[in-house]
Amino acid sequence: MNAVIALCHFCEAHGPNAIFCTQTLRDTKLEELQLNQQHVENKICSACNSLGQTNGMYSKDNESGATFLSTQTAALADVQLLVKQAAVRSLSCEINSNKDGGFVFFGDSSRGHVLSHTFQVNDLQARGFYQLFSIIVLMKDKYFLLNTKPFLAEHLRKISADIQASAKKINDETKELPRQQRLSSAQILVQTPRSLVELTGEENIFAYLHSHFSWILLAGSRFLTEHVTFGNLPWLPPQSSDRPPQQRLTYNITLPMIQKYEETINDPEREEFYSLRHVKEVVRREFDTVVYCALTGIKVEII
């Protein structure tokens, strides 16, 4: 899947930024990348750093030949600015009010389309007793991103839930410490936001994120596939009185408003829409909305 998945964090000292990015490399070799980026601001804050500017993690799928690379900032220069802009929006203005972590879609054709999942992580030493994180999926293909949203939402929510569960465990252990010990430790770290490793207590948290982000990129490319076979299209009327062959053009994801011919051929009371022109005559002013819902996978019911 030609996309970038990034973990973003709102630092109390430096503001919103992406701290961990995973992307697919197909035509670019690792030797051609310059991980030591001098123009990137070197932040000494532990909360803004994950792997460092010169380190990275990569995995390779032998079947597809794709390489999945994770770095602190996007490895490709033309993607860095897009990820940074998406990170700022996902942690400032494009936030779902759901505390459990909601999803927001935003973007355009020039800056890419983004699916953002914002969530809170418990931190007794932070302002408001939590830190704000988000996971964003950035890609150019708007409709592919919208059609794979259920798949992405399911797995991104699992990742955020694991992070929150680990942080809650550390948070509960801290509450059990004597009050004097909690106050002394808070005074030491009050000026330094804690990193994700400290929040979760997981030393290999970024290796965990790399493996999951890489799998999502690999599985996402196989989520929407096409199988072309012989026969009439399932939403076209029959060309003869004979029943058309079973082989048809099928999709893993179909338009909800299109009903398969086999399901309704023996139901004379069920009205069928065989052309967009017929649909436009029925819905009229709402035609654009109906077409958009059909393309993005939203169920349409015409009463």
From TrEMBL:
Pfam families: Folliculin
Annotated UDENN FLCN/SMCR8-type domain residues: 49-303
Example GO biological process: negative regulation of transcription by RNA polymerase II
Coiled-coil annotated spans: none
Gene Ontology molecular function: any one: GTPase activator activity
Highest rank taxon of the organism: Eukaryota
Any one annotated GO CC term: cytosol
PROSITE patterns: DENN_FLCN_SMCR8 (PS51834)
PANTHER family tied to this protein: FOLLICULIN, FOLLICULIN FAMILY MEMBER
Name of the protein described by the UniProt record: Folliculin
Source species: Zeugodacus cucurbitae (Melon fruit fly)
